[in-house]
Write a structure and sequence with these properties.
Layout lengths: L4 E3 L10 H12 L5 E3 L8 H10 L22 E8 L6 H20 L12 H17 L2 H30 L1 H14 L4 H12 L2 H8 L5 H17 L4 E4 L3 H11 L7 E4 L13 H13 L4 E4 L14 E4 L6 H8 L8 E8 L3 H28 L3
Parallel strand pairs: 1-2, 3-8, 4-6, 4-7, 5-6, 7-8
């Protein structure tokens, strides 16, 4: 049998993740079970941490920060720089047109009694929750009511799609939005809401506006290129890891970086193939990481696949193309630098967009996590 079981990244031990089954099996077969579970990102929700403790039979929690005396000598400093970037005025007409389309759907939902309050503050979360409620009501409805709920679901689905398009334009750029619209064109035969939205966008002249915007990169993309150029010029060498939420953005950034002298950039994505491109096999991922480690590639542009669980080489600079609202993912991304030497993190934030909300959310959750873990550590230490 095993005398000690160690779980790394133990925040994963929730729901049906394999850690839960392994912990349960070990506790039932070990004569004197001893479990050590570790994570840099336990999460900010008490119920999640309690579930991890329950699933891994954790009885005591020790919480440390980089400021604690027994930690400080063994870690490197990480400098975090938030770069707030203004969007050009030429984005305004297309943004306004999409918001008018969104407000039209929200008013219809409000007229059906499904949305309340100021419609200007309805966000993605409210729309997702409304969709879950509507699908539940559809399943439970009698035949006479099904038409009403199906019409509401159509409006909710279109509103969520428009909300996503606005986010893509303002946070990612017109190139990523164009790629999403191409996907809508391909799927409009199967998804009626896509066909309705595309017809409306064409009648409003939005496609022509988008085509004009595509000729100039999003200011965040231009800023990223400048950061990479200056960093590699100053250092002469080094490794840079760029994170983006969307594969289409990853593809676009790799293409842009490829024309810069001294930059060897590569995409790094998961195994599944999507509309945004073919996935990468484990063999391809391993080859790219080896080339990154050897210096043959000096800029890796990745989705969340690079956040944890893989042996990513030490990097000098981590760039977030956009903030993320998850404190767990923020910590994991940030932790890719500053391991053996001081590191830098730069987060690109588009002013007056969802970027700002995500930035505030991640910082608030990070503070909540630290407060909660310190309190939980004290409570468990007081147990007899």
């Amino acid at each position: 049998g095993f005398g000690l079981l160690v779980f790394d990244e133990c925040h994963r031990a929730v729901k049906e993740y394999a850690y839960t089954d392994v912990g349960n099996f070990y506790m039932h077969q070990a004569e004197s079970p001893l479990i050590l579970a570790m994570t840099a990102s336990p999460g900010s929700k008490p119920e999640r941490v309690e579930e991890v403790c329950k699933n891994l039979s954790i009885e005591q929690v020790f919480f440390r920060t980089e400021d604690d005396a027994d930690v400080r000598p063994y870690i490197q400093s990480i400098r975090v720089d938030w770069r707030r970037i203004n969007l050009p005025d030429r984005y305004g007409p297309l943004d306004s047109a999409m918001r008018a389309m969104l407000m039209s759907r929200l008013r219809r939902l409000s007229g059906m009694g499904l949305l309340k309050g100021d419609l200007r503050f309805v966000g993605r979360r409210e729309l997702v929750e409304l969709g879950e409620l509507l699908r539940y009501r559809l399943e439970e409805s009698v035949d006479e009511e099904r038409g009403r709920w199906m019409r509401a679901i159509m409006q909710q689905s279109m509103a969520l799609t428009i909300f996503h398009m606005i986010e893509l334009l303002l946070s990612q750029g017109p190139q990523t939005l164009s790629s999403f619209i191409e996907k809508m064109e391909e799927e409009k035969g199967e998804k009626r809401s896509y066909g309705i939205l595309l017809a409306e966008m064409k009648s409003m002249g939005m496609m022509g506006r988008l085509e004009v915007l595509r000729r100039v990169p999003h200011p965040k993309a231009a800023h990223l290129l400048k950061i990479v150029q200056e960093r590699l010029k100053d250092k002469g060498q080094g490794r840079i890891l760029v994170f983006s939420q969307y594969r289409d953005t990853v593809n676009f950034l790799v293409e842009m970086l490829g024309v810069i002298e001294g930059v060897s950039a590569s995409r790094f994505v998961g195994q599944a193939s999507t509309f945004s491109g073919k996935g990468m096999s484990q063999e391809e991922q391993a080859r790219i990481l080896n080339e990154f480690r050897a210096g043959e590639i000096n800029v890796l542009v990745a989705t969340n696949i690079a956040e944890e669980g893989l042996d990513i080489p030490e990097v000098d600079l981590v760039i977030f193309y956009e903030p993320i609202p998850s404190e767990i993912r923020y910590i994991q991304r940030r932790g890719r630098t500053g391991r053996r030497a001081p590191g830098d993190v730069i987060v690109l934030v588009a002013n007056n967009t969802l970027d700002m909300a995500y930035l505030r959310s991640s910082m608030k959750r990070l503070e909540n996590m630290r407060t909660m873990m310190a309190r939980l550590s004290r409570l468990l230490a007081m147990r007899p």
